[in-house]
């Protein structure tokens, strides 16, 4: 089945939410961990087709089903400020702690009330950050590298020289992939914060993700 990368839009929000849920457990599905399966996407995916400073690209098959995405912000601090004022408050009202029963739901509900902000070393590395997820069926075919390349080209066009991401410490396979394409630990941050300088990006294709 042929795949292609295209610009993501707000209409893709349901697909981003679905993919996020199916990859939220260290790269595997967390669907059985949630009663509110939309919560991972509302934190890590959907805002990037809704809020200012954001961008998105999606991986789509020939049936026009979205099977992967790469999303981010060109200005993390502005994104955080806007989300704190306009995105998280509505969600905290919609998902009170007494509504969550399963531990994974409760974890997200608490996170909405105390959303992390990026460490200063990450911002020193780059104002831009990203998230990427691809459904397991389409991994290990080179699409992860291609999607990062698409994002890098876009961010260079925005005048940026690098980008960073946080990796789930349980997902060693993802961390190895990021390292192969040129990500390195952000200086001064913990081992799960990885940054990429665009002049160090490995543009060559490979069957890595």
From TrEMBL:
GO molecular function annotations of the record: acyltransferase activity, transferring groups other than amino-acyl groups
InterPro entries: Acyl_CoA_acyltransferase, Glycosyl_Hydrolase_84, GNAT_dom
Domain N-acetyltransferase: 132-183
PANTHER family recorded: O-GLCNACASE, PROTEIN O-GLCNACASE
Identification of the protein by name: N-acetyltransferase domain-containing protein
Organism: Hypholoma sublateritium (strain FD-334 SS-4)
């Amino acid at each position: 089945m042929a795949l292609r990368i295209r610009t993501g839009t707000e209409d893709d929000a349901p697909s981003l939410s679905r993919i996020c849920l199916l990859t939220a457990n260290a790269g595997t599905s967390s669907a059985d961990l949630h009663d509110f399966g939309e919560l991972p996407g509302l934190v890590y995916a959907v805002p990037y087709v809704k809020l200012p400073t954001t961008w998105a690209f999606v991986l789509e098959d020939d049936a026009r089903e979205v099977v992967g995405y790469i999303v981010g912000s060109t200005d993390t601090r502005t994104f955080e400020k806007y989300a704190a004022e306009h995105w998280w408050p509505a969600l905290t009202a919609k998902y009170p702690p007494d509504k969550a029963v399963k531990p994974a739901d409760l974890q997200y509900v608490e996170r909405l009330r105390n959303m992390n902000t990026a460490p200063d070393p990450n911002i020193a590395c780059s104002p831009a950050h990203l998230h990427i997820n691809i459904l397991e069926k389409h991994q290990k075919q080179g699409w992860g590298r291609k999607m990062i390349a698409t994002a890098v080209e876009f961010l260079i066009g925005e005048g940026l020289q690098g980008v960073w991401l946080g990796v789930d410490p349980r997902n060693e396979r993802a961390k190895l992939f990021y390292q192969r394409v040129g990500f390195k630990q952000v200086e001064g941050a913990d081992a799960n914060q990885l940054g990429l300088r665009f002049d160090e990006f490995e543009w060559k294709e490979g069957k890595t993700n």
